[in-house]
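PROTOCOL LOG
Step 1. Enter all chains and additional molecules of the complex.
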Amino acid sequence: MVEIHDLVMRLRSGDRVVTILDGISLAVPARQFVAITGPSGSGKSTLLGLMAGLDRPTAGSVRVDGVELGALGEDALARLRLARIGYVFQSFHLIPTLTALENVAVPLELAGIPDPRARARRLLDDVGLGERRDHYPAQLSGGEQQRVALARAFANEPALLLADEPTGNLDSATGAQIIDLLAARHRERDMTLVMVTHDPALAEHADRIVELRDGRVTADRSNGAGA
Amino acid sequence: MNRFAVWMAWRETRAAWPHVGSLWGVLACVALGVGALVGVGGFAADLDRTLGREARALLGGDLELRSARPLDPATEAPLGRLVQRGASIARVRELVGMAREPTRGGAALVELKAVDDAYPLYGRLETAPAGHAGARLGPTGALVQAPLLARLGLRVGDPLAIGAATFTISGVIEKEPDRAAGVFSLGPRVLLGAAGLDRTGLIQHGSRVRYRALVRLPDSVDARATRAALAREVADPSVRVTSFDEAQPGLRRFFSQLTTYLGLVGLVGLFVGGIGVAAGASAFLRRKLLTIAILKCLGAGSRTILATYLVQTLALGLAGSLAGAALGLVVQSALAPLLAAFVPFEIETRLAPAPVVRGLATGLLTTLLCALWPLLQVRAVPPALVLRWPVDASGLGRRRPWLAALPIAGGLAALALAQAGSLVVGGLFLLAAVVALGLLGGAGLGMARLARRLPWLPWVAWRHALRSLHRPGSQTAGVVVALGVGVMLLTTVALLDRALGRELDLERRREAPSFFFVDIQPDQADTFARTVSAASGGTARPVLTPVVRSRLAAIDGKPIVREQWEGREDAWRATREYALTYAAAPLPGTVLTRGRWWTAAEAATRPRISVEDEAARAFGVDVGGTLAFDVQGVRVEAEVMSLRKVDWHSLSTNFFVIFSPGALDGAPTTYIATARIPASAEPAVQDAVAAALPNVTAIPVRDILERVAGVLDRIAVAIRVIALFVTGAGLVVMAGALAATRAQRLYESVLLKTLGATRARVARAFAAEYACLGLVAGIGGVTLGALLAGIVLVWVMDVPWTFEPGTLALGLTLTVAVALAVGALATFRLLGQKPLPLLRRE
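Step 2. Run joint prediction.
Step 3. Record the structure below.
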């Protein structure tokens, strides 16, 4: 599903150049649940962002579903995300001016799907937030906001779901609910799930655990106890 | 346009609505500009409609034949044929003369008009008491305008002397259908019967009389076709044939130019508003960076997002334009009474769809073009911003949409050209706009840059103020341009007002005469000189110049024919009566541009002339060529020996054509005279001349200048009203720019207070910043204003430019004061904020 080859990412910080990713190669087969772990600053989130085409690497390539991301322009990347990739952020990133329902409807509307509001309502019901659909993000708790973000990420039934520390801003009980939702969705819809986390307990839900340190893969093991 | 963009725009607008304060700036910017445009456009439409409706009354008939001499039989013949076909004709003679109060001897310059019983053919002559003009006039009655009664202390029923005859004032004229009284009249109207004018003895050779034959055609006869036929039949080119739709070309031109310039000033207002729109869009975009990045992560393309915010901006632009159109209707009804005095009928204010639609379209297009530049930066927002938020909130890279700059500038230029209605006027406007924008924008950027480079200042308030001028998103250059343009316009109007006021102030113009006396017969010259000298207590010595009236007959041997000149703007040059004089030596102040003055010997061999250079250019004649004049039936041909530059502003006696001595011997001659008289003796001199020589007309220069000044005052008020809209838009832009940095300001003021700064100290820092903005905008604005006024005065009006330090200093001081006031209003609430709640939020 995802093939990464010799991926390098360097950023300029003032006068010096900081290497975030230093030659990463990785292949994620379809329907696999991969957890990417590592300490803060190891390059996990950057790697995930590059898988979604949110930024351009300094060198190396990322292929998603056989498509070379480096060959696509900004709008083509956007269309690819719309059709195939769901993304969940640590800080939820709901649009503050839209209600929960409208936030979930955005990808459906962008894709031109008929009756997006009815579908968004079902998606919110699925994450247990049907009653809160007309609330604005500011009126929702952190856990509720992340559930709305999950419903939004599920909206177009992506083949690849990327989750960046989805429980990082939540207490452990709420975090567990979110992981359950993610894992269930992965199971039911046969989607590929790549989750970044620094929490080893959460990583244990995955089929495979990839560990990063200083921008390199330091461990890559399958996890028999995975979901 | 996809459906998502419209949905999203609607939701974003809905979300912004509770915080409408952030939108009102953009709304107000557009509304002020559109208001000025719709107001001026609506007024122009009112005027067009009224002039169209009243055209026949304004001309006095369907057709008019006008000449400086009685119509000859060849001209009367086709008129007779028209009467046979059912037309009616009214005969009118007009001239300027003196009216006297017969017992006490007070005199006043009046515009005399003699009419027959058929007058008026169209419209109504309104008098008090009411009644038919013909019956009230007869051979001894006179209808007068009220100012004459006040001037001479007369009442209806009293006697009034004109020339050699005495009349009884039979009523007061309230409305005269065919007279545009407000523009440049020489004096109040006195209406006489045809026989009455004959009794005055004022119609002598040399008097300037306008003979008009007004024709009312039967409904079945087409006026334009008849005009064309008449023009063919009437050979004499000095008889002007006009149809009603060409009535009052001067008045139409005056209004068309006035409304064009007012419209352009209105457009400046809209463009200044456009700066506010651009600044508002830019600030809005900065607030929306995260939303844009999220949308991109979810799969929205840049185009979709751009469309979303364009739809939203256009909705705001539409709301602002609609509010502006409503405001424009108020401006429209305010302009009508201000300028109505120039037309002899009421200007009916009506809602005209065309100017409203044009105003809305211009408002929308300006909003779109001005918002496009900042909004195009949507494309530069990286989706990866979500990963770095809020650590890296700067969002926009350095990528600027330069490719789009050309179509945006082109679109704005096209709007200006469309508004100007002419390539030349529009081109000049654009040139001025680019210069103003460059200078003011450069001054703003320069100040921001200087503020960054200045060494450490010992005063906290100033240090803080200068830092604020170059903070991210401070829009210093935009504010300086927006404020400066308004200041520039108001300064220009003030300087023009002062310069023209000086030109029109007789006391300052020591070389100018107090009076022109015209129609002095040769045998009256001595009496005249004695009378003026005696009445002025011996102080005045009038200068008499001989005048021979004539018509231009041929240029370089080719006779003047109607077809050659008809329809030309300068047709008057060929058809007017020329006042000729003769002189052995150049008159004082003469500047020859070509050729030389004649010697006595050359003058003795054949007639020679010196011609005013612009007239020579219009005639296409040069030194060595000839002009022939018809002097009371005698043709005099003369060789052009020199061309002269004439300063028509000098208020001395000037001539288009001066003959060599002897050339006009034997021609019927009158004299005109000028005299400089102390102001206190002016009425006595006027009265004495009118009593001793009733046929001599005394034109008081002071009065005329005051009338012209009055007309200019009204125009200046109209321009100021529209210029105030520009300034208003500038202030809104400044308030908007300050509002855009409100959060930063709040945070800074709270930090300063936490660190121990008093509110007064924080306020001083803010005030220093606003004073800097006002100062730079003020300096730029008054400098540009002085430049623009100088160009208009020297190149357009031919009036000398003088340095006016007082006006410029006042402009500068007011700008700083207003900038301080607006700044204080926009930010004073920040000073009262308690630090803790805000710091906790941060």
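Step 4. Note key features.
Chain A touches chain B through 35 residues (CB under 8 Å).
The first strand of chain A starts at residue 2 and ends at 13.
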